[in-house]
Design a protein that fits this description.
With 798 residues, the protein is mainly alpha-helical. The chain has 39 helices and 7 strands. The longest helix has 19 residues.
């Protein structure tokens, strides 16, 4: 770490074997040597909020860090996980623009990486993360994400875990880091040898030789057991207890009531209690009580915080608690944590209430925990909290609607439909406006990145039917439904119907009252309708209006669609310079927001446009940057897409070997692109390399691929025919090659009408979720390519 080569080290071993002692000794020496150090541990006994491990680490790191420059956004982004970070850096809390859950997650992950980079900028950083075997899944995912980015930083990450219980997610993190060369050391700690254990025992208590031998024999190589037995003997207990439960029972027996209560609260918490939490407990003179409890040797203090020296000791104290006392402790601690009004503690509050048997109070805490998890992009955890709340309480339509939306974001449409259906049943047919609001919510979650126009259309039509039949109609909701219905018709239905719906929105005053999101929705629908109708130039103005409205609303994720609509309209009109302007405006709106998934899509579109402009060096640079960002966030789908895009640029540059390899990788990795078109592009690269047999295999494979609207099936025949002609010509069959190329040219001549471009645009968006600019079909350009192939063949045979 000192030399700028980051690394990860894992320590694995049975409980009590010495992992924590070894790791903390390392941190102490690193700190003494000038390094910055920080540590965190997974919450024992369950109940940790998603990313709770990292929330603890962020709080500890931010205590001593200098404030970063004011123009960086990551402190505000981290506030979703650790709200106090901004104030620690001397900043007033700032509102964060909301975004889709997957984008929130990506932004938060990037912010954590930037925090680690800032922490390691001035001096080496050593981070200890304990008990990965019980860490929540998002914390493990973020651990792997950060660890992959430290190779060029002065950072050492030390991870501890037990071999049991087995944890597939923890194994996956280690495997990924090992494969990437980040995992520099893997240490498995076994039982200590007798002589080492004897030295440890001697350092704990002044014992006679025979007493040391007895303690060593009884400990069986376990350092923690040896230490506790040595302390018991050192206190004069000639017959020390054989178990930790017995040891802690004796250690706690001499405490007064308040000190014992502090020790019990610390056991129930399952983690270190902060000074503020200690002071809020129903204990007289908390500092004195904590100091007395520390004298048992079971606990350790860090500043005003208090926690157990080892999880096994905490477990032993917890096991000694009588059931009624345990329940009271859990409920009391839940109330103390709830008073802090920290959404990140909601999951812990719910866990304590469940363990206290207060399911009635746990429901609201679980709902808040789900809301917090969703804000972090931890959708699986959010769904789990909601399912638990529904399990322990009466069915609640609000909770079911939230669950339905989260399941939709998780692409679990069947589960979403079930939850939504249950919510509608509970609302009942007489609910009127409530049913309309529920359906509008469904329409909204199927817009954006999910992009399922059929669902949007169905849900928004339900809203319109409900509101038009209700004399007390909600005017703003009606306008929102009209705009959503128009959008769905424009994208995948009848553009003429979309225009009629937009006219009704205008008649009802929609978009004229300062509602930026409604303005964006109206503009987006209008731009789509114009594009579908082939009126590309007219689509510029609503695209700009939608993009600017989203920027004013501080929704860069929504502005993304508007600017790309403009870019695609300009591309369809053949105005590639204007398309580049739209893309650049979109990228500016995303700058510094951490929304890497959207940045990648902009780069893909930009690479395509630059290729069409003949600016191939810039196109390659953008495609390479697209690949780097996809690798950074470790998204397989985006990595495969970047391989495809880089392959197309390489083909345009005449780098046929690279093109063939990259396109093969994209196909093997199932990139979300048109597979028939990718195969034909690879076939062309292979022909140019003289590998005609392989090219023929790709052409045959193309014919076997399933074909959908985004594959532009009406264009596949002239494309295939052209490749057959190129293969024949390359094999010396010049007559056959010329005939196939003439057939391809005639095929493109029959398709010179560009009226279908708008439908092709929509198909690429809805089927693949790709920037439609990359799916542009240009028959005149394709015809010119075929004619150029014919001229080249004629020169060969002349």
């Amino acid at each position: 770490a000192r030399e700028g080569a980051g690394a990860v080290v894992t320590l694995t071993g049975e409980p009590g074997i010495g992992k924590t002692r070894l790791a903390t000794e390392l941190l102490a020496r690193a700190h003494a040597d000038g390094a910055r150090v920080a540590s965190c541990a997974a919450l024992d006994l369950g109940g940790a909020a998603p990313l709770g491990l990292w929330a603890e680490l962020i709080r500890e790191l931010s205590r001593e860090l200098p404030a970063p420059p004011l123009d960086v956004a990551w402190p505000a982004d981290l506030s979703a996980l650790a709200p106090e970070v901004e104030r620690r850096f001397g900043r007033e809390p700032t509102a964060r623009p909301s975004a889709a859950p997957d984008l929130e997650r990506a932004r938060l992950f990037e912010a954590v990486v930037e925090l680690v980079e800032w922490a390691a900028a001035g001096r080496p950083l050593v981070v200890l993360m304990e008990d990965l075997h019980i860490a929540d899944a998002p914390s493990l995912e973020l651990t792997g994400y950060v660890a992959r980015r430290i190779l060029r930083l002065r950072v050492l990450m030390v991870l501890t875990r037990r071999p049991l219980p087995e944890r597939a997610e923890a194994d996956a993190v280690e495997h990924a880091l090992r494969a990437r060369g980040v995992l520099a050391g893997e240490m498995t700690l076994g039982p200590l040898a007798a002589d080492a254990l004897a030295r440890l025992v001697s350092s704990v208590a002044p014992l006679e030789a025979d007493e040391i031998d007895q303690v060593v024999a009884a400990a069986d190589g376990n350092a923690l057991l040896a230490v506790e037995r040595a302390r018991a003997v050192g206190r004069g207990e000639r017959a020390p207890p054989a178990s930790l439960r017995g040891a802690v029972r004796i250690a706690l027996s001499g405490l007064d009531a308040d000190a014992r209560l502090v020790a019990e609260f610390a056991a129930v918490a399952g983690r270190e209690l902060s000074g503020d939490e200690m002071r809020a407990l129903p204990v007289d003179e908390p500092p004195r009580a904590a100091s007395t409890a520390l004298q048992t040797g079971l606990l350790t203090g860090r500043g005003s915080a208090l926690g157990y020296r080892h999880a096994l000791l905490r477990d032993a104290v917890y096991a000694e608690l009588a059931a009624p006392q345990r329940a009271w402790l859990h409920e009391t601690l839940a109330g103390t944590l709830a008073e802090r009004d920290d959404a990140g503690l909601a999951a812990e509050v719910a866990r304590h209430l469940r363990l206290a048997g207060r399911n009635d109070l746990a429901i609201s805490a679980l709902a808040r925990a789900a809301e917090h998890a969703r804000s972090l992009g931890a959708l699986a955890e959010a769904a789990g909290y909601l399912e638990e709340a529904l399990e322990v309480g009466d069915a609640d339509p609000a909770l079911l609607l939230e669950l339905a939306e989260i399941e939709a974001w998780r692409s679990r449409t069947d589960a979403s439909d079930v939850a939504f259906g249950r919510a509608l049943e509970l609302l009942g047919p007489q609910a009127g406006v409530d049913l309309a609001h529920a359906s509008m919510r469904r329409a909204n979650w199927y817009r954006g990145p999910l992009c399922v126009p059929r669902e949007v259309l169905q849900a928004s039509r339900r809203v319109l039917d409900l509101l038009r039949a209700d004399p007390q109609e909600d005017a703003s909701l009606l306008q929102e439904a009209l705009a959503a219905c128009a959008w769905a018709e424009a994208v995948a239905g009848d553009p003429a119907q979309a225009e009629e719906l937009l006219a009704e929105v205008h008649w009802r005053g929609g978009g004229e009252q300062g509602d930026e999101l409604l303005t964006h929705a109206i503009a987006s629908a209008r731009a789509f309708a114009l594009i579908r109708g082939g009126r590309f130039g007219e689509a510029y103005a609503p695209s700009i209006a939608g993009g600017e409205a989203a920027v004013r609303a501080d929704r860069p994720d929504l502005s993304y669609g508007a600017w790309l609509n403009g870019a695609c309209a300009a591309s369809c009109a053949g105005d590639f310079e204007r398309a580049l302007e739209f893309i650049d405006r979109g990228q500016d709106a995303l700058a510094g927001r951490g929304l890497i998934g959207l940045e990648i899509n902009y780069l893909a579109a930009r690479s395509y446009v630059l290729t069409r402009l003949g600016r191939l060096d810039e196109a390659r640079a953008d495609a390479d940057e697209e690949a780097k960002l996809a690798e950074r966030i470790d998204n397989r789908e985006l990595r495969a897409t970047a391989e495809h895009d880089r392959g197309l640029v390489a083909l345009a540059r005449g780098e046929h070997e690279a093109a063939a390899e990259l396109l093969a990788q994209a196909l093997d990795h199932h990139a979300p692109v048109s597979r028939p078109l990718a195969r034909l592009a690879r076939a062309e690269a292979l022909v140019r390399l003289g590998r005609c047999d392989e090219a023929e295999e790709e052409v045959r494979a193309t014919a076997l691929e399933p074909v959908g609207p985004s594959d532009f099936p009406d264009t596949l025949v002239p494309r295939l025919t052209r490749l057959q002609g190129l293969i024949a010509a390359a094999k010396g069959e010049h007559g056959l090659g010329a005939r196939r190329l003439e057939e391809a040219a005639n095929g493109w001549r029959r398709r010179l009408d560009r009226s279908a471009d708008g439908d092709r645009y929509a198909a690429t968006l809805t089927d693949l979720g790709r920037p439609p600019v990359a799916g542009l079909v240009e028959p005149d350009r394709e015809l010119e390519r075929v004619l150029a192939d014919l001229r080249a063949l004629e020169r060969t045979t002349a």
